[in-house]
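User: For documentation purposes, I need each entry recorded in a consistent format: the amino acid sequence on its own, followed directly by the corresponding structure tokens. There are two entries in this batch. Please keep commentary to a minimum and don't merge the entries.

Assistant: Recorded as requested. Entry 1:
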Amino acid sequence: MNHCNATDQKSSLSQCELQDLHEMIAIQGGVLKSHQVLSLMQQHAVSFEQIKKLLLPVCEFFAIAPISKFHAGAIAQGET
């Protein structure tokens, strides 16, 4: 994990970062910790609203759609 090189650091998530995030979120039971979200926001110089949009492709990996085959992502914000 975290094998992305410096050229991947920009205001969008590279394919490499998406793969790394997918792996990390899967290990953590589908959750990003608040400090991880804050780190991503700082790394990409984006707001909370913007990082949620950037993370949607990662959420699509976790969508289960056996009938429609429409893999939509969703993000929820916890209290802690």
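Entry 2:
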Amino acid sequence: MRTQNALSRSQESAEAHEMRLSIDRERHAKSRASETFTQRETRLSSQRNRTDVARSCESVEGRQARLESDRERHAESRASETYTQRETRLNTDEQREERRAAARQRYHELLGDASTHLSQERDRIQEIRGTWSDEQRAAQVEQDRLRRNVNQLSTSDEESTVYDIEEQPWLNKEGSGFMYNVAINYAAYGNIGALEEVCAHCQARKWKGEPNGMCCASGDCKVCCIM
């Protein structure tokens, strides 16, 4: 079929050639005007795939010849277009460029939002760490060092490295509920110390560092003895 078409087209006159192209353009225009959104997306996707496959196989000489042919075809088309066709093309090009500019602006806005969010998150973490004691800060530094060592081991030889999660100590217990670390086996640290502190108001036993007044509101609540 393709051979017959090629033979037939090689024998057609210039008038027949122009008439066939005009009929093809009208047929394609009608077909595209009646297609649904899904059909249009499918057609464009299939067209892009065919173009990508064809261009990935072409040689350097073939690519240069294609670009040169495209330039000549565009030059001939624009030289023969009417004033109305030229205005339509320029308006279409302008609209396309406006869409591209809007897309670029949105892309840069998204990058800016992400950068702002990261900056705010870093500031928040720095603010939290600024309230830590020297012991807490030293514990966090040690924990960061251990995490870096584990990451280096896991990325250097993923197949042969065996990483025991229990080797990561839970050094900074106070306030760690707000900074969960997946590299720590919290179940191995079930012993969080003895109840060594005693409330001066209700004599309730508490852990070291537990805020005062949590048990009886600093004596405002009377706690009944259950012993």
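Summary note for entry 2:
The CA atoms of residues 56 and 63 lie 10 Å apart.
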